[in-house]
Design brief:
The protein has 233 residues and is of the alpha+beta class. Helix content is 39%, strand content 14%.
């Protein structure tokens, strides 16, 4: 009986080891890069004219820069038809399209904030809609939204990608993606769609793998941002 248990334990360990190795290889292969490319810098310098906002020194400067970037992205690419699935959606692609959906603009804003020296991360909002987390994650057509979180001198702040709205309360507090819908009463002009409950998943870009190469049926993640959030918040 003991030998049988040992054999089962070893077999299970091998299976788990293989699964972990396969998942790790697939995750590495499917990682969404966040490094700035020369084409990104060209957009920020020439199209959006962001050079004057680099390295804000005070909280007031940070807010001014964040609002300016958000506004200029909306002017360049207002809400409209999104970049089709299975096609590149980097800043230069958005400038050519001249319109987009939340996940198109948020990608450009993610990189634009990095360009001026503010740490940023992509956030996938999975709306709850009276479902549990895993049920919502795998439910076809589940409502979702893509936004950017920017790290200010007062903490992480939610920056929307469908309206020119940032999570700054009436008394000047910044609010992260976990708490916006919980603290909706503290904001002026908060969009209606930001009052419904969600789960905020940092580093996740899509559930189906259709937005970023290699375009396979595996969720689009930047794994550094995802695990950094899990470990350090």
């Amino acid at each position: 009986m003991v030998k049988r248990l040992i054999k089962i334990s070893r077999k299970t360990a091998w299976i788990l080891g293989v699964v972990v190795c396969l998942f790790s290889a697939l995750a590495f292969y499917a990682n969404v890069p966040t490094d700035l490319e020369p084409a990104d810098v060209a957009v920020f310098q020439n199209d959006l004219k962001l050079a004057p906002f680099q390295h804000p020194k005070t909280f007031a400067d940070e807010i001014t820069a964040i609002k300016a970037i958000q506004h200029r992205v909306f002017v360049a690419a207002p809400v409209g038809n999104g970049i089709p699935d299975y096609q590149p959606r980097e800043p230069a692609d958005l400038m050519k399209k001249r319109e987009g959906l939340c996940y198109d603009r948020s990608r450009t804003m993610d990189k634009a904030f990095d360009y001026i020296g503010l740490e940023a991360r992509h956030v996938y909002l999975l709306y709850r809609q009276d479902r549990g987390y895993w049920s919502a994650m795998f439910h076809y057509g589940q409502a979702s939204h893509a936004i950017t979180e920017v790290k200010t001198s007062k903490g992480w702040m939610f920056v929307d990608s469908n309206t020119e709205w940032i999570a700054l309360t009436r008394d000047g507090q910044v609010v992260n993606a976990d708490d916006v819908w919980k603290r909706a009463a503290e904001f002026d002009g908060i969009p209606k769609y930001l009052k419904d409950p969600w789960w905020a998943i940092r580093g996740m870009y899509s559930r189906k793998g259709q937005l970023y190469p290699p375009y396979i049926m595996f969720p689009d993640f930047n794994w550094v941002d995802y695990f950094s959030w899990l470990i350090w918040g």
